Amino acid sequence: GEEAKRFLAIILKDGQRSWKEINKMMKANNINQGTLYKARKKMGGIRTEYDPFGVAYWVWDRKSMKRQSSDEAETKISEEAKRKVDEIREKHTEVPENKEEEKK
Questions:
Q1: Burial of 12 by CB count in 10 Å (0-12 exposed, 13-18 middle, 19+ buried)?
Q2: Global pTM?
Q3: CATH number reported for the structural domain that contains residue 86 in this entry
Q4: Which parts of this chain are annotated as the region Disordered (predicted)?
Q5: pLDDT at 85 over 90
């Protein structure tokens, strides 16, 4: 179960994934569907959304996940550390990649 939770956290951390994609990766990682669904339920905050073409996507609402698991050791990161990580992320995402090329 832990492996399945880790797998979900990794593949969903950057946003949504289509169920087809998740299914492919799940098989490649030898995780069965039952285990995956149990992990999904345990993690919380993962919902299914459909695009206009009816394709299913899994979306991880990490804010609700953080609230649910704030008592777990994994999430006992100080607020300060979290803030630093967020600041670093923002710095990296603010600058468009093509800015670098303009300088040359």
A1: buried
A2: 0.57
A3: 1.10.10
A4: 65-104
A5: no
Tokens of residue 76, six digits? 């006992």
In a domain, 100, yes or no: no
**Is a pLDDT exceeding 90 seen at residue 86?**
no
CA distances from 85 to 15, 72, 97 (A): 17, 19, 20
CB 75 within 8 A of CB 45: no
**Which residues 6+ apart lie within 8 Å of 68 measured at CB?**
44, 45
Q: Is residue 104 part of a domain?
A: no
Q: In degrees, to the nearest 5, what angle opens at C-alpha 19 toward C-alphas 13 and 44? A: 50
pLDDT over 70 at 60, yes or no: yes
